[in-house]
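Project standup — Tuesday

K.O.: blocked on the structure for the chain from last sprint. Re-posting the sequence here as requested.
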Amino acid sequence: MKKSIWAIVFILFLGLLPSSIVNAKTTTPSGNTSSSANRGAINLYNEKSDSIKVFSPEGRSFAVTKEDIDLMAKVVYAESNAEPYEGKVAVASVILNRLRDKSFPKSINDVVKQKYAFSCVVDGNINVTANKDCYNAVFDALDGKDPTTNALYFYNPKTARSSWMINIKKTNVKPIGNHTFFVVN
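H.V.: unblocked you, prediction finished:
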């Protein structure tokens, strides 16, 4: 059931993205593959719903909209464009991990725009055009892939200027590319 929901979310949002970003193939239950034959049906489905429930931690349901996907992809691009693909998925996972955590806001928009949460928001670098890899990383994170094992924070030790980020006691530390992902007790 859980995998089916993720598959629906993935297909749903592929239908919303411009073809220049995503060139997806869909497979019918009979096994036929199509590059665009099902696009119309997917778009019709999207017209009926602005969002879809993607997960329900601790009894609370969360919905993700196309705008949330776009915002997450922009953060992934701004924070990790030069990082390996695993690092991009990790950044998207941090956003979702914060959404699940009781000490963070309860919408993707509020998590991303929380004061000092992401340097790309603070310094204005969020106004970017995300690429296909960034969108795919967001979809992988929404599909449950989390290379950070539930990290809530990340930073680049070579460029970090925040004394809090540098000096805080970190657990569940996982370096990926130039970033270090972690949890604070």
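K.O.: great, moving the ticket to review. The chain has one domain: 2-184. Helices lie at 2-16, 39-48, 66-80, 85-100, 108-113, 119-122, 132-142, 163-167.
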